[in-house]
Structures are given as structure tokens and as C-alpha cells.
Amino acid sequence: MPDSRYSDLDRPPLSEAALNRALVRPGGLWTGVTVVESTGSTNADLARAAQEGAAEGAVLVAEAQEAGRGRLGRVWNAPPRSGLTFSILLRPEVPVASQGWLPLLYGVAAASAVRRLAEVDVRLKWPNDLLIGERKLAGVLAERADDAVVVGMGLNVSLRATELPVATATSLAIEEAACLDRDPLLRAVLREVEVHYREWTAAGGDAEACGLRAAYLAASATVGRQVRVELPGRPALIGRASGIDRSGCLEVEGPDRLHTLSAGDVVHVRPAE
Ligand SMILES: O=C(O)CCCC[C@@H]1SC[C@@H]2NC(=O)N[C@@H]21
């Protein structure tokens, strides 16, 4: 049954011109925002552009995605204009060992922007899922393209309960958030990413020195919790998430020893205390 609280009027298109006016400025990180009606994957498109030599700071937004890519080989699809699906192209000049912080940085920035604008309590499931309670509001996928990194985000804005890809997801509309307007949400996320990225690169990628590690721990819903981590090609690990190391890896106190994980799918197995 259609949900009478929503109509297509709640899903106005994004204006490329307005976004460029708001975000692109001399000396700023963002060099241009492109809005397309539909594409396969904004991450794949920007990865191709990166390989062809595109400069840092390109932003690509799609009103609809037909083959959106998620972490660990999953898909990310949403009805047109019901969310934000966009990618950015970065060329971080920091040591490779520190680059694992980039997806976490993005999570911290996006969570802070959404929290402020939408007035919802967003926390981070490692590495960078945005959660409200235990429900997923947004996901972030960082992919290497030669020496560039493409970071894409999918944020559920006006999805109705019947449109959620999985029952464990949520949207700003379902959470009765203070803002369902995609334009200010997108601007806020990109501005916050720029601030954190500038601080992190100025600190040579040292997440401790620029306060990123502390900001991540403050936003984390995972550290301190009992977790099950599904690991690619290995049995799942059950233990207590105890910290984040210097490279952004998750530390889990397992039954045998301390494990340091650079990838994996975390499940919070007990409610937060
Ligand atoms: O699995 C996740 O949680 C990450 C989802 C990331 C989806 C976004 S949508 C925009 C960008 N383009 C893609 O193909 N994927 C990312």
C-alpha cells in the first residue's frame, strides 16, 4: 500500500549548478560536481576517470544507480532520488600505511554532517557504516584506482520502509529526521570531508596527530562491543572489539589472542551497554 506521508514531491532533483556554486571555490578541494540522471556505478565511473588522469576533487552524483557497488562484493541500489549516491576522487599524498584511515575519515565526516543537519544520533560500525541504533543509514566504499582513491557513499534519505533493501536498514524519513533535503545534506557531507581531509593530509596522514583517531573512537558504535567478524576466506572471529590501531585496523580480543583486522564484516552481537 502506498505510504501517504510521502509523494514524489518529496524527491526533487538535485541542481548541478547550485551544487557547483556552493562547493567549488578557488583553492578548495572540490573542482567540479557532475549530476547524472542514471549510471551503473559512480565509483566505477570515477575510477575510470582517475585512470585517465582526472584531477583530485571531482564529485559525481547519480540520481539513480543500476549497478551500485557495496563493500565485500555486495550491491547498493535505491529508488531514484530517494537517497544520495555519489563518489569523490582523491589523490592523498600521505604514506601508503596511513591510507587505511581514508574510509574511516569519510565515515567520521559524514556522520558528523548528518548528525548536525538531520538531528539524528548517528554512530559508526567499523569501518564506516553509518548506523542509527543498529540500523544502517548509509554505507561507504573506498576503492583504489591506480594512485587515486575513489570514495563513494550511499545515504538513505526518503526511502519508505517498504523500499528498504534489507530489513536491517533505515532512512532519514523513517527516523523522522529534521532534514530530508538532499542538497544541504550533500553539501554538509562534502564540506565536512574537506575539513577532515585537509587536517589529515597536513598531518602527513597521522590520524593521532590531527585528532582523527579520537574523533573516530568518539563516533564508534563498535569499539568496546562484543562482535562477530565475518572474514574473507576464514572462519568468523568472535571477540571484543578493543581499539583501532595506527593504520585504522580494528583490534579484536579473540579467544586466543589479539587480532588486527584490515577487512571484514562486523556484527554487533550484544546490545550497547
Ligand atoms: O556496502 C556498503 O555499505 C557501501 C555502499 C556504497 C554505495 C555507494 S553508492 C555511490 C557509490 N557508487 C557505488 O557503486 N557504490 C558507492
UniProtKB/TrEMBL annotation:
It is an enzyme of class 6 (ligase). The keyword Ligase applies. InterPro entries: aa-tRNA-synth_II/BPL/LPL, Biotin_CoA_COase_ligase, BPL_C, BPL_LPL_catalytic. One of its GO terms (molecular function) is biotin--[biotin carboxyl-carrier protein] ligase activity. Pfam families: BPL_C (PF02237), BPL_LplA_LipB (PF03099). It comes from the Bacteria. GO terms for cellular component: cytoplasm. Signal peptide: none annotated. PANTHER family: BIOTIN PROTEIN LIGASE (PTHR12835), BIOTIN--PROTEIN LIGASE (PTHR12835:SF5). This is biotin--[biotin carboxyl-carrier protein] ligase. It comes from Nonomuraea wenchangensis.
